Amino acid sequence: MKKVLIIGAGRSSTCLIGYMEEKAEIYDWRITVADRDGGMLRDKVSERSRVIILDIFDEDQLKMEIEEADLVISLLPARFHPIVARACVELSKSMVTASYESSEIRALEKEAKERRLLFLNEMGVDPGLDHMSAMRVINQIREQGHEMVEFESFTGGLIAPESDDNPWHYKFTWNPRNVVIAGQGGPAKFLQEGKYKYIPYNRLFRRTEMIEIEGYGRFEGYANRDSLSYLEKYGLEGVKTIYRGTLRRPGFCRAWNVFVQLGATDDTYLMPGVENMTHRDFINSFLYYNEHDSVELKLFHYLHIDQDSDVIEKLKWLGIFDKTKIGLKEATPAQVLEHILKKKWQLSTDDKDMIAMWHKFIYKDRDTGEIKEKTSSLIVLGDDKVNTAMAKTVGLPLAIAAKMILTEEIKLSGVYIPTSREIYEPVLKELEDYGILFLESE
Amino acid sequence: MKKVLIIGAGRSSTCLIGYMEEKAEIYDWRITVADRDGGMLRDKVSERSRVIILDIFDEDQLKMEIEEADLVISLLPARFHPIVARACVELSKSMVTASYESSEIRALEKEAKERRLLFLNEMGVDPGLDHMSAMRVINQIREQGHEMVEFESFTGGLIAPESDDNPWHYKFTWNPRNVVIAGQGGPAKFLQEGKYKYIPYNRLFRRTEMIEIEGYGRFEGYANRDSLSYLEKYGLEGVKTIYRGTLRRPGFCRAWNVFVQLGATDDTYLMPGVENMTHRDFINSFLYYNEHDSVELKLFHYLHIDQDSDVIEKLKWLGIFDKTKIGLKEATPAQVLEHILKKKWQLSTDDKDMIAMWHKFIYKDRDTGEIKEKTSSLIVLGDDKVNTAMAKTVGLPLAIAAKMILTEEIKLSGVYIPTSREIYEPVLKELEDYGILFLESE
Predict the structure, then answer these.
(1) Is B202–A260 a contact, with Cβ atoms under 8 angstroms apart?
(2) pLDDT value at position B407?
(3) Which pTM does this prediction carry?
């Protein structure tokens, strides 16, 4: 009987736990789900599985639990993975995560290989599904002898059309903090027509690209982190364009830019006096002083927002001008903003979210030399507030990979992301059974 | 015979060395000037003094030299002061600097007091002269029983009207790197009419204040770092407004903002391919791709710069659109920009620079309850490219303080900035002999 330890039972864990429990019956596994917080744990896990409260900083307990397991799945926030990974190396256990491969994890490569362990990262939706679906097409193109020239890829965690009932066309479907600070920590970097391009944070939400996904309408994309690193990861050295982006509904970025310009997304300092501040006071602290003008007018004037702009409706709808107490004791601007947004961007019980992904591949035909284009797109809708598209697309690829490691269908050792055919092919195939299906068109 | 060790002989050291050598003859001191780079050292120092090449990371040599000295004056970049300061504590020597007091230096308070040492920081122009001249007026106002209500203070290192021959009305008169990265590292913070206000870096150069100094015309000021910390330093708790700013000539900030918006002042990442890039390529790397449009038009469109804007003249004059090789091997955007600017913003041999300082004090009259205003302003002109106003205003306060420590006119021990009357009064008085004289008006 194989044993699986799942660490972290947050928002994205439902589908993963569901899949693993279903397969546990077939393959006779024993599942343990561990979380720091025991409160909601039992609701997410069937009686057949074990639940434990685990503090990963309690080294003895962490090691005892890992020692017991045949495979560790970590759904913790990315910064905690190295702690678990080092314990896994020590106890000779493989581990899978849905997070970006960090340099700390990368550094375990040699030991992992020596001990024949697999550390498989970036196995969620973005990063994860994006790698797998892109690599499948890129490899097809190359196998046919054509030459890749451009690659663009966009992913967004959004709200399904039927639940899209606010002027931002957005609600939180994953960690709200990451939405608020998205784009900080260095400029977006990409390659366009052979030129390196850089977009600083303060321009990021004004340099959007428009894309359309058939049946789902228009989206806007803003550049996501360092696309240049994917030249090597995808073996695309020599292409003229590589660009990875994040999708929102049109108009989101222009309005979000207001918070960026104000400085309201800054997470680096604590604001004094938050305890006694209202939403309105918070916004006013980023505006010049004038005893007569309203906070609204000062803001619109400061950022050149026309009186008839849709940005105004979006801002007012959020309640940022309200004289409502913020309700936090001590916070950074980003924490205050997150707190205000959470009051509005909550999923209702019946709300369905949506994952949208879109890739564009430009290649030079082997025979004719013609420049041709392929696209690949994915839409996944959530079932409800709990079984979200986010939970499916993060959890299922991870769960399928975990199954394949346990059943030894995947036999790699070392530190990997799912750009290898032996990972992406079976995973993408099985995902189709769950309605996660890419539409490719030429 | 007392011995003085001066570490660092850069741009601002000339007047300091000159003053110390002059006083050395009177008081029979022995001066040693130490620098990492021996090249220009002898030109700056008379035969009477000793020059040495000193690497502060060579702990043995550093300690040997400090051991020999009665007082250490550090003109090193601020980040190196703690290394020197810790050696000074260990060897029981006092130290003066012109830099902001860091938390590392602050932490030496207890040991300094126990060993009866003085660590006197912020003894240059800004910080330095600004503290001293402001505290003199603030204390006068309070001694007369009035109540301080508002305090604003601006300082700028600029170019004298007679040498002001470029559209930016600016040349480098101190460390160019600090000019390029000015304003980064957290928002500007200040208090206005009882409200905390924050300006993020991306808005800093658009939130300027206009001020006028009689006989020298108009200036614009942008907010400088964290003004809130001066509430305590100046004993101004309870005032409604506190604002510290940096002066430029009108129009500078709006044009400089172009570089901020582009991301060209970013010092956090190395750009690939700088070796083969021209000025024009550098600017283009922050703009969208379009095979037909010029870099100029793309930039003007991107940042909404009208065809008749003075910003265009400023940018063109800098040569940022030229197809000139940058001439660096590897660099961050900030380093590339500094390199381009240095080609243009150099002082010519006969150029005179200018230090401008302006304080405004608003107080409530003790008897009438009336709100009254005082201002205090300073203009210092340089003699030439070497004996700059910057070198005078940074070096002379530091040198005078050093003299007063050596002659025991200052007998404090602990970690200080010159907000104490026993420092600022004699220093301001002696500075008048050197033409550094504040004009106060009611």
Answers:
(1) yes
(2) 96
(3) 0.87
Contacts of A198 in chain B (CB under 8 A): 263, 266, 271, 285-286, 333
What is the domain extent for residue A48?
2-125+390-441
Q: Which helix (H) or strand (E) holds B152?
A: strand B147-159
- Say yes or no to pLDDT of B360 above 90: yes
Residue B56 lies in a domain: yes
Rounded to the nearest integer, the mean pLDDT of chain B is 95
pLDDT in tens, A355-368: 999 999 999 999 99
CB pairs under 8 A between A and B: 92
Give me the count of residues in chain B: 442
ipTM of the complex: 0.80
Residue where a domain stops, chosen among B316, B331, B346: B331
Query: Last residue of a domain, which of B306, B331, B356?
Result: B331
Nearest to A285 among B196, B288, B291 (CB): B196
- Distance from CA of residue A125 to its chain's centroid? 7
Looking at the fold, whether B15 and B87 belong to one and the same domain comes out as: yes
Question: Which chain A residues have a beta carbon less than 8 Å from that of B197?
Answer: 285-289
- Average pLDDT (A28-42) is 89
Domain count for chain B:
2
Which of A196, A202, A272 has its CB closest to that of B202?
A202
Query: Which residues are registered as beta bridge partners of A197?
Result: A190
Name chain B contacts of A266, Cβ cutoff 8 Å.
Answer: 187, 198, 200
Cα torsion through A244, A248, A250, A253, rounded to 10: -80
**Rounded distance between C-alpha atoms, residue A346 and residue A386, angstroms:** 12
Contact (CB<8Å) A269/B187: yes
Same domain, B11 and B118: yes
Interface touch A195/B266, C-beta < 8 Å: no
Nearest chain B alpha carbon to A288 = B197
User: Could you tell me which residues are beta bridge partners of residue A160?
Assistant: none
Mean pLDDT of A79-98: 96
Q: Chain-centre distance of CA A95, in angstroms?
A: 19
Residue-wise pLDDT for B147-195, tens only, equals 999 999 999 999 999 999 999 999 999 889 999 999 998 999 999 999 9
According to the model, what pLDDT value does residue B37 have? 86
Query: Nearest-CA distance from A420 to chain B in Å?
Result: 28
Q: What is the pLDDT of residues A161-215, one digit of tens each?
A: 999 999 999 999 988 999 999 999 899 999 999 999 999 999 999 999 999 999 9
A197–B285 CB contact, under 8 Å: yes
Q: Taking residues A250-270, what's their average pLDDT?
A: 97
A295-318: pLDDT as tens digits: 999 999 999 999 899 999 999 999
Out of A199, A273, A333, name the one closest to residue B263 (CB). Answer: A199
Which residues on A lie below 8 Å from B269 (Cβ)? Answer: 186-187, 189
If asked whether residues B16 and B121 sit together in one domain, one would say yes
Domain assignment present for residue B223? The answer is: no
pLDDT bin (cut points 50, 70, 90) of residue A442 is: confident
Contacts of A189 in chain B (CB under 8 A): 269
Q: Return the pLDDT at B44.
A: 86
CB contact under 8 A, A285 and B195: yes
B292 touches chain A (CB under 8 A): no
Is the residue at B73 inside a domain? yes
Tell me, yes or no, whether B404 and B324 share the same domain: no
Rounded to 10°, the helix B252-262/B310-318 angle is: 60
Residue B105 belongs to some domain of the structure: yes
Residues of chain B contacting A193 with CB distance shorter than 8 Å: 289, 291
Residue A3 Cα to chain centre, angstroms: 28
Yes or no, beta carbons of A289 and B202 under 8 Å apart: no
Residue B420: give its domain's CATH number.
3.40.50.720
A313 shares its domain with A408 = no
C-alpha to C-alpha distance for A40 and A14, rounded to whole angstroms = 12
Shortest distance between the Cα of A107 and any Cα of chain B, in A, equals: 22
Do A9 and A108 have their domain in common?
A: yes
Q: Give strand ranges (E) for A126-257.
A: 147-159, 188-192, 195-199, 209-213, 217-223, 241-248
- B6 and B112 in a single domain? The answer is yes
Question: Do residue B118 and residue B36 come from a single domain?
Answer: yes
Of B211, B239, B219, nearest in space to B138 by CA: B239
Upstream peptide bond of A127 is cis (omega within 30 degrees of 0): yes
As a whole number, mean pLDDT of residues B220-247 equals 95
- Round the average pLDDT of chain A to a whole number and report it: 95
